[in-house]
Give the backbone structure.
Amino acid sequence: MNYLLVGLTFLVLAVVVAACAVLGTDRLIPGRRVLDALSSDGVDAAVGGELPLILSDHPRGKELHSIRFSTAFFGYHRDEVDGVLAKLMDENTRLRSLLESDSSSAETDNPGQISSERP
C-alpha cells in the first residue's frame, strides 16, 4: 500500500512539473514572444535579452509615459537614463528658444500683446 501511495505521489509530481514546464514558459522567460517575433523579422535582439530603449528626436508626453528602462543589478542602466535625460534637456532647450523667439517676434509685431499661439 505504501508503494502505491509513493508511486501516485511521484506521478502527481511529474504531472505538475510537466504542466509548469509547458504552461509557465512565458513566466520563466518573459520576453520570449518578443524575441521570437524579432528573430523571425530578421532583426537581431540585444545580447542581454532586453530590447534597447529607443526615443524619438522630439519626444511628446505619450511617448514619455511609456518609457521603460531595462534593469541592472542595482537599478536601471545608467547609460539609458543619461541618454533620455540628455535628449529631454535638448528638447527643453529647443522648445524654450522657440517660445522665446515667438514671444519676442510677437512683442515687435504687437507691442503690449502676448501671442496666443504655442508650438
Q: What stands out?
A: Residues 53-119 form one domain. The chain has a mean pLDDT of 76. The beta strands are 71-72, 75-76.
